[in-house]
Amino acid sequence: MSEPVEEPIEILLVEDNPGDVRLTREAFKELSVDVELCVATDGKEALDLLSERRDVRPASVPDLVLLDLNLPRMDGFEFLRKIEEMPPFGQLPVLILTSSTASEDVLESYDLAANAYLTKPTGPDEYTSMVRSVVNFWFEHATLPSIAT
User: Fold this and answer.
1) Packing angle of the helix pair 43-55, 76-84 (nearest 10 deg)
2) Which residue numbers delimit the Response regulatory domain (predicted)?
3) pTM for the structure as a whole
4) Is residue 69 situated within a structural domain?
5) Domain-located, residue 4
6) Domain with 125 in it: what CATH number?
7) Residue 119 resides in a domain
8) Taking the C-alpha atoms of 104, 110, 114 and 118 in order, what is their torsion angle to the nearest 10 degrees?
């Protein structure tokens, strides 16, 4: 990995499985970057959190969303549809992180402007490898939009 990211990275993880949340947290802890992982257990909770931050604490808008597709109350597809209608979140980078390998899910995710589609790893080492790749690409190489309200 190249130079460590200097500012804390804030990532919104939208995931209802406590085991996957734990694996993701542990994978981020393995890296030498300052990551603040905020967790929402469904799309509705994630939208509420984003709305609050937009209205009350605009400086705390996450840098990236990791989104599961199979969620209670509001699934990942509906979440993607809704954030397109919520300025300025239509520009927020969203990476799908799901166990689904169905080609229809991949296609629909990209149709709804997801930035990447990742299949959930099965173990801690694979999670760490995936998280390292995400941080390396999205925060060390890619240029992200400035989300201003």
Assistant:
1) 30
2) 10-135
3) 0.90
4) yes
5) no
6) 3.40.50.2300
7) yes
8) 50
**Can you name the residues that pair with 40 across neighbouring β-strands?**
14
Q: Residue type for 9, please?
A: I
Q: Which two tokens stand for residue 110?
A: 């990209």
| Residue 3 included in any domain | no
Phi, psi dihedral angles at 96 (to 5 degrees):
-75, 130
Contact 25, 56 (CB under 8 A): no
Residue 82: CA atoms inside 13 Å, Cβ hemisphere, count?
Answer: 14
Residue 132: both structure tokens together: 């390292």
Given a contact cutoff of 8 angstroms between Cβ atoms, the answer to whether 21 and 13 are in contact is: yes
Number of domains in the chain: 1
Rounded Cα gap, residues 82 and 39, in angstroms:
18
Whole-Å CA distances, 149 to 13, 52, 145:
22, 12, 12
Tens digits of per-residue pLDDT, 52-70?
A: 887 776 666 889 999 999 9
* Better pLDDT: 133 or 142: 133
